[in-house]
Amino acid sequence: MTIATLSAEWAKFRTIRGWVVAMVVAALLTVAVGVWATSGSHGEPCGKILPGGQMVGAACSAPPLGPGGEMVTDSFYFVHQELGGDGAVTARVASLSSNAPWAKAGIIVKASLKQGSPYAAIMVTGAHGVRVQYDYTHDTAVAAASVRWLRLVRAGDTVTGYDSADGVHWTRAGSVRLAGLPATVQAGLFVTSPESVTDENTAATMASADFDHVTGAGSGWAGQDIGGATAYNSLSGGFQSTPAGFTVRGSGDIAPAVATSAGSGRAADQGVIGAFAGLIVVLVVGTMFITAEYRRGLIRTTLAATPRRGQVLAAKAVVIGGVTFAAGLAGSVAAVLLGERMLRGSGFIIYPVGGLTQVRVVAGTAALLALAAVFVLAIGTITRHGAVPVTAGVALIVVPYFFTGPLAALHGAAGEWLLRVTPAAGFAIQGSLTAYPQVNGAYTPQYGYYPLSPLAGLGVLFAWTALALGLAAFVLSRRDV
After folding, report:
1. Which residues of 32-49 are buried (b: 16+ CB within 10 A; e: fewer)?
2. What is the DSSP string of 131-179?
3. Are 209 and 93 contacting, i.e. CB atoms less than 8 angstroms apart?
4. Element (H, E) at 365
5. Percent helix, percent strand, percent coil in the chain, to nearest 5
6. Residue 298 in 3-state DSSP?
7. Could you tell me the residue ranges of all domains in the chain?
8. Long-range contacts: 227-233, Cβ < 8 Å, 24+?
9. 92 by DSSP, 3-state: which?
10. Interacting residues of 291 by C-beta distance below 8 A, sequence separation 6+
11. What's this model's pTM, rounded to 2 decimal places?
12. Strand, coil or helix: what is 385?
């Protein structure tokens, strides 16, 4: 590809006013639809802030922040005692009753009773065996058995978990270091049970566990419902002493907070959802950039001036891809900035997103649009007619995304399959929130979660585009125009 060929294709694009205007419209549509989607009329905000500063409805209570600055859920019933210095707590979980697979009952060492404070815990779960978890985001499987003896040992800043099938032979389950752990911590027994979450609704659950053979380093046990009843968890826990130990009831979770239909939290960069609207315009322009020359017979002049046909196709791909990337970048930046402002004004809780992640989302959305434009350019080169590329682009990119995301008509395996193998997988680049396997959640594109990682999803779209472009170069070099 020579500079002259590239300049010639750029001149063709910029001299067609309709194409230039269409790219501006694509950027504006990205912004407009993104702002509309984050305006507060399509979710469940806790309260809306009016221009004068008044709030309509109840104010949101933001989730507590964990040790890493992430929003967390920290709600459980705690039967605890102070542990000054080093020591250990041992107990057998004789039974756990709950319908929730991630119900938890076990032993926890926590820096304080404050929500979001550092902790380490070893626990029995409803359907996922024995686990070691700490500081909300970390989870490790230990054993498959559900009824176990558990022990936590504190030595300075290090907390080590052990489990046993008989209370005699112990296995080291894991060790974690909680930096800055105070001299006196809270240690004891806990029970919690997360909400049952579906794509449409949620329901609070309650777990009950029997503990026996309980030994601790301190004296006297106290019970406290950490977090208490909330808007999304109306069940309160409690405990009672038994001849063998304790029966403890709890509801909630100790885990990262996730954005689902259960709450009013949204990702700060949700405004990029409007990119699918701008994408439709991009598909039309990308198609016309090649098919217009076929329709008017100008392709003969182009190829006569540049006999190496692959260079012409490459130059067209660079021009349409570059222009689309610029328009997509401008639209995405504006959509994110205005969208976050709309979310805050509508009373939504904003989940923190790192600066590098936001850059990846914005630049990745622009790359998504650029690859889509090159994809239909390649199909237009093969078919030489405008209807087929636009139809293929809409059918393979827009429709799968729309029906698994904003419209949410396809759930489960069907929706995941479409977002794994079709070019619509590229929308995964917009994902900025983490789906945690140890947290119940409706992890769907509607809430910003995708079945592929961001780069893997964009890689699928890139593969489709590269394949189409390679086939287009082969066809263009071997047929008459």
Report:
1. bbbbbbbebeebebbeeb
2. EEEETTTEEEEEES-SS-EEEEEEETTEEEEEEESSSSSEEEEEEEE-T
3. yes
4. helix 355-383
5. 40, 25, 35
6. coil
7. 3-49+262-478, 72-256
8. 227/73, 227/74, 227/75, 227/76, 227/115, 227/252, 228/75, 230/61, 230/75, 231/46, 231/61, 232/195, 232/202, 232/204, 232/262, 232/263, 233/75, 233/195, 233/204
9. strand
10. 380, 383, 384, 385, 386, 389
11. 0.80
12. coil
Residue 1, pLDDT > 60, answer yes
Residue 415, SS3 per DSSP: helix
Half-sphere exposure (CA, 13 Å, Cβ side) for 245?
20
- Give 72-256's CATH code, choosing from 3.40.50, 2.60.120, 2.30.29, 1.10.10: 2.60.120
- Tally Cβ neighbours within 10 Å of residue 478: 8
> What stretch of H or E contains 265?
strand 265-267
Question: pLDDT of 342-387, one tens digit each?
Answer: 777 766 777 777 788 889 999 999 999 999 999 999 999 999 888 8
Measured distance CA(227)–CA(75) in Å, rounded: 5
Side-chain-facing half-sphere of 399: CA atoms under 13 Å: 8
373 phi and psi angles, rounded to 5 deg: -65, -40
